[in-house]
């Protein structure tokens, strides 16, 4: 494995069917040639990702839309004009050239154009769309630096280092209905942002008997230590915290408050700034997961507005398995 800013070596690896971890504005991705099923299979193996969880296909040019999708919906171009390159994934009917392994057998494919010069150069020079989920083991904390990738995926052929991701949270995933959009996964781009160009749909997404968006799994993004959301009164959290020695705990502050009873205090923000909190979220969880003085984490909830909705979504999923 090597870490590099040398895109031509990474391009060669992609073209030969290997894996490259690369920076995007949301989180680091683990990429392979989206049109090469054997290469894509390596992503699932390396991540230990269940085959029912589809991958997002990353493009660098709108010319890929008619190649990768069927019955091109003109609203994609309206959305692209406003939000691409950027943290928005649009789920569209897939064309036959997209292998089933990419979409977990769904008839649709999630497409996004990332807002990162290294990612765009990698896709352009490789000459193929790149399928990439977040570059972490399935269910664990997403990476926002090259170091985070190395921690969880030491066997990846190549990690392109582009510094810390500046959004810090995965893309918003949407599908289109006859009357507008449906959010399948919350992210940096909110429903209010989307409503500036399209109405929100009154209908649910048709999904047959499959999960309409597996990113909606209840448990995800978890550190290897128990994490709770402050004020969550589920019996298991109450029981755990009643018996816990708080000096072995870490408090993850959003407003800047610093409770003295905890051994460690870390910050999403010191001033209640939601943008800053999103950028810091996964980095703080990695730090606390790695800190031997910390046995468990208590996170201060953030307000449910703007990107706060996506932050709470990630925190609740991280905490889910510890409250059940
Ligand atoms: P990530 O592992 O962060 O790249 O997340 C990918 C997520 O995007 C999946 O877990 C799904 O929730 C969503 N997604 C990707 N492709 C589709 C699709 N064809 N239909 C619905 N959701 C999708
Ligand atoms: Mg992920």
CATH domain class of the largest domain: Alpha Beta
Shape: globular
Strand content: 15-25%
What strand order characterises the main sheet?
1-8-2-3-7-4-6-5-9-10
CATH architecture label name of the largest domain? Alpha-Beta Complex
| SSE pattern | EHEEHEHHEHEHEHEEEHEHEEHEH
CATH superfamily name of the largest domain? DHBP synthase
Reported for the largest beta sheet, the result is: 10 strands, mixed
Q: Say what the CATH topology of the largest domain is.
A: DHBP synthase
pLDDT below 50 for ≥5 consecutive residues: which ranges?
none
Number of helices: 11
Q: What would you report as the Rg, rounded to the nearest angstrom?
A: 20 Å
Ligand roster: adenosine monophosphate, magnesium ion
Helical/strand content category:
alpha/beta
Measured between the Cα atoms of the first and last residue, the distance is 38 Å
Helix content: 25-40%
User: What is the count of distinct domains?
Assistant: 2
| Chain-averaged pLDDT | 93
| β-strand number | 14
What does this protein look like?
It is a single chain. The protein is globular and about 55 Å long. 31% of the residues lie in helices and 18% in strands. Strand 2 and strand 3 form a beta hairpin. The strands form 2 sheets. The protein has a 10-stranded mixed beta sheet, with helices on both faces. It contains 11 helices and 14 strands. It has 2 domains: 194 residues, Alpha-Beta Complex (DHBP synthase); 97 residues, Threonylcarbamoyl-AMP synthase, C-terminal domain (Rossmann fold). The relative contact order is 0.15. Helix 1 packs across helix 6. The chain is of the alpha/beta class.
